[in-house]
């Protein structure tokens, strides 16, 4: 069996996180290597590898996560100036932790293209 991801270890309480939101379906915490003044990761508590591993039964969960992202963005004062939500999928898409997660970033201008 493969080793648990860092996000699973955070969910299990093995690794501390600076949590900004938690409910029965998801957890949100500050990124330890922020790329913007506000950089929060939002993860489902259900272990899902990536977008490619979602199923129809996850539809409500994903919708819930996006409403949580909206709430956190508003709570962090990002709603008026805007923010970015990123979800990398697969190694070629820049995913480095293989547990579905969303990056909520804001607090500065975020140019396009990213990177």
Q: Could you describe the 3D structure shown?
A:
The protein is α+β, with helices and mostly antiparallel strands and 115 residues long. It has a single domain, classed as HIT-like (HIT family, subunit A, 2-Layer Sandwich). Helix content is 20%, strand content 22%. The chain has two helices and five strands, in the order αβββαββ. It has a five-stranded antiparallel sheet, with helices on one face. The N and C termini lie far apart (34 Å). The mean pLDDT is 96.
Q: What brief labels describe this structure?
A:
HIT family, subunit A; five-stranded antiparallel β-sheet; 115 residues; alpha+beta
CATH class: Alpha Beta
Strand content: 15-25%
Look up the CATH topology: HIT family, subunit A
| CA(first)-CA(last) distance | 34 Å
The average pLDDT score comes to 96
Q: Largest sheet, order of strands side by side? A: 1-2-3-5-4
- Count of domain modules: 1
Q: What composes the largest sheet?
A: 5 strands, antiparallel
Q: Residue share in helices?
A: 10-25%
Strand tally, please?
5
Q: Name the CATH homologous superfamily.
A: HIT-like
Shape: globular
Task: Summarize it.
With 115 residues, the chain is of the alpha+beta class.
Helix-strand layout with pairing:
Layout: H1 6-11, E1 19-22, E2 26-30, E3 38-44, H2 59-75, E4 83-86, E5 102-106
Antiparallel strand pairs: 1-2, 2-3, 3-5, 4-5
